Write the structure tokens for this entry.
Amino acid sequence: MMPLNDLTPQAYAVHLAQQMLRKQLSFFEGAVRMAPLRHDIEGVDAMDEDFLAFVLISSETDHLPLKAHQHLWNPESLAQLLPEIEHVEIWASPFATQACENIIQRFSSSIVADGTKKPDQN
């Protein structure tokens, strides 16, 4: 597979959705990456329900530190937030799982194995 930054937005969305379903990436962390892709994928409306699931997660958790920033936090403060971060996964799981499945179904057929977009068939 290509480096992630070389993937098309569709391929990156599928990659993120697969990682979240495999529990290699939390819904909390994945939402921050997935939500903005709705602006990068041709034909996806800004109000697309599958992507809005991740906008909702991001909006409801924007006060929580991502893993990449947690080392900057006071350990006691971070410890107090960990139950809330864990709860996000439980809360988001039903609708985020469905959104991931939908994204994979919608965009998998438009990409080839190397993460590039299939040429239009005319």
